[in-house]
Amino acid sequence: MAAEPRREREDVATWRVLAVALGTLGFMLVSLAALWWFYGWMGGRQAAAAPPPPMAPDRAAPLRAFRAAQHEAVEGYGWVDREAGLVRVPVERAMGLVVQRGAAAYEPLP
Asked: Structure pTM?
């Protein structure tokens, strides 16, 4: 008969350990959920309070302007020296003129 009271104590001890473990796990889950909610709430408040970032300057604008000027110089017509009668012609047109002149294209201009 001495064995039964000991078994009851072991059962009670097992249930107590299990209850403490489940209680601790539940407390941890509730704490994590509360922290998750709090960080989400604070993040939303900080995002609403922060001013919008300033507009970044367009760093590619000077390069685009330079390339457009070069494209116009290569592909467009224009005066190089009006008094001397020198004009700028597109590269394709200049190559066509050289082909039309044939071997005489490389002779000095008058």
From this structure: 0.38
pLDDT digits (tens, 9 = 90+) for 26-47: 999 999 999 998 888 777 666 6
Number of domains in the chain: 2
Would you say residue 8 lies in a domain?
yes
Q: For residue 86, what are the β-bridge partners?
A: 81
- Residue 56 placed within a domain: no
Residues 43 and 71 grouped into a single domain: no
Higher-confidence position of 101 and 43: 101
- Return the exposure string of 20-51: e unless at least 16 CB atoms fall within 10 Å of the residue's CB, then b: eeeeeeeeeeeeeeeeeeeeeeeeeeeeeeee
